[in-house]
Amino acid sequence: MTNEGTTVGRVLVVDDDMTVRDVVRRYLELNGHQVQLAGDGETALRLFAENPPDLVVLDLMLPGIDGLEVCRRLRQRSAVPVVMLTALGEEEDRIAGLQLGADDYVTKPFSPRELALRVTSVLRRSRAVQTPPPVRTLEDGGLSVDLGARTARLGGAELSLTTREFDLLTFLMSNPGRAFNRAELLERVWGWEFGDQSTVTVHVRRLREKIETDSARPTRIATVWGVGYRYDPGSGAGR
């Protein structure tokens, strides 16, 4: 593994277009990364098992095992950061990828320089997550978050949260009663200075499905119309 605190690492690039693979490889190597290439999902999974990378750049449209299935299988064995490559009209697949635990995406046609910047940003965030904060617990009406162990429980049962869902929940619970817009959440939770704000909407929806009694009528994570979202403490008491 590359040393924590650096923003370079070993990157596996998965795309069936040889030209795209070569261009992405050259830009990533210019930024100091070590790059492996795969042209299909089966090869990508084999290379990952043989020598797990620090990050995966993953095209959704792959022959054989498609990108969504590759992402799902990676998430079964690892929390490795995944940056997806998607075509302009693949919004449903993009959202599905985010729900499977992908960390970011870039839409084709894309700027190789932008992709390299996003890889650096995702690596920085993932390594910051690996440094545990002082052991501290957030409690609210049966919902408990242990920041040291990075676990969350509701009514004593452990919740299955992705890294991004955990970070979003922790941030909102640490700032109760305060409304944040989507751009603020992108930057303050995940360190994104740019990005699609629908990412926040997807992860709020997923969190609500896991911590609300009725996700269609949320009480913990409230929508502040025209602004964004707010965590209301005490709303889940007595559950």
Automatic annotation (TrEMBL):
> Which residues does the UniProt record annotate as the domain Response regulatory?
10-123
Q: Signal peptide: which range, if any?
A: none
Alphabetically ordered keywords of this record? DNA-binding, Phosphoprotein, Transcription, Transcription regulation, Two-component regulatory system
Q: Which residues bind DNA?
A: 133-233
| InterPro entries per record | CheY-like_superfamily (IPR011006), OmpR/PhoB-type_DNA-bd (IPR001867), Sig_transdc_resp-reg_C-effctor (IPR016032), Sig_transdc_resp-reg_receiver (IPR001789), WalR-like (IPR039420), WH-like_DNA-bd_sf (IPR036388)
Positions where 4-aspartylphosphate occurs in the chain:
59
Output a single Gene Ontology CC term carried by this record.
protein-DNA complex
**What is this protein called in UniProt?**
Response regulator transcription factor
User: Lineage of the native species?
Assistant: Bacteria, Bacillati, Actinomycetota, Actinomycetes, Pseudonocardiales
